[in-house]
Amino acid sequence: MDSRLVQFVNCRLLRDHSIVKDDLWVRNGKIENPEKLFFDEKVQADVRIDCQGAIIAPGFIDLQINGGFGIDFSHDIAKVEEGVAKVAKGILAHGVTSFCPTLVTSPAKLYHQNLPRIKCKEGGAHGATVLGVHLEGPFISPQKKGAHPIEYIRTLDEGFQTLMDVYSTLDNVSIITMAPELANAPAVVKELSNRNVTVSVGHSMGDLRQGEIAVQHGATFITHLFNAMLPFHHRDPGLVGLLTSDAVPEGKTVFFGIIADGIHTHPAALRIAQRTHPAGLVLVTDAISALGLQEGTHQLGQMVVEVKDSRAFVAGTTTLCGSIANMIECVQHFAKATGCSMVTALEAASLHAAQTLGIERKKGTLQFGADADFVLLEDDYTVRSTWISGECVYKNPQYNK
Question: In angstroms, rounded to a whole number, what is the distance separating the alpha carbons of residues 132 and 2?
Fold first, then answer.
């Protein structure tokens, strides 16, 4: 780790919910407070980097990504470590500095083999930080399975014991998506929450009350809002109603992932979500193995996927199954569709994701003492460079610096 004091100048920083003209100071992989440097240590920068007017924003965090660049985390079992590493490296170009590799509904043996091998790992030149696995299933509703194979969907017959029998370990797990209406779900949600696993409700036929009970037991996230859940109804708004529910415990924020790829969620739906509960909105890609590749046939877990006209479908059906959009494309589309500020768009891809996992003091922020994970952007969100722990890990070839 670089012990030199580095000063980034001629830049605009996203800090305290505003974009301000200021310098960024970095040392030993952390963001430094310049007042302490000047008045206490009385030191000067060892290195000054001219950002040429770029915006410096916290590095993006993708909480739901199934793979990319030909890799599917739920299918390529034999070389899963290599697969995670390849995706971790590839997404640096999209400004992503941390992510949660996501496993879709799979047979128990896959979890037993894969989970011990997808380890949390600090990021660097080798790739983005692995924050832990997102287990999307198999404890979901068969009626809202989306691209999840129905033969592997499970119930929680024995409660938490069933969950452990299926997964075998939670050591490298950060998020679990489950349907809140399942029998024994509230007790399982509570146990997972007590173990610091973020519980997300999704792939569900659950009504609002069932969602509220899950939140009251510890659930804090909604998996890809609007997709794979009951549609909003004025007499029972379903899980969508959690965005304005008065049954959410005081002081608790319900966050929700949303796929702003221009396909999964209509621009009007994006505007409704953003204007209703902006503090909870988290941009996720839900990207599949086809990310970064040409159209054609690809893999998602146990299913074959066909990509055509920028849409990914379960082969032979009209069922959408993940996206092929990268995080920058999602940020750009979200900003355009909602007309929101740059601050709002960037925090939806960084700060809110960090808050979802309770790591907002380290990630998703440029506050003093946080990890120096950030991205240099043009005003149109083009990535100029990506930095992890104060080290440049990706440089857009269009730019010299």
Answer: 26
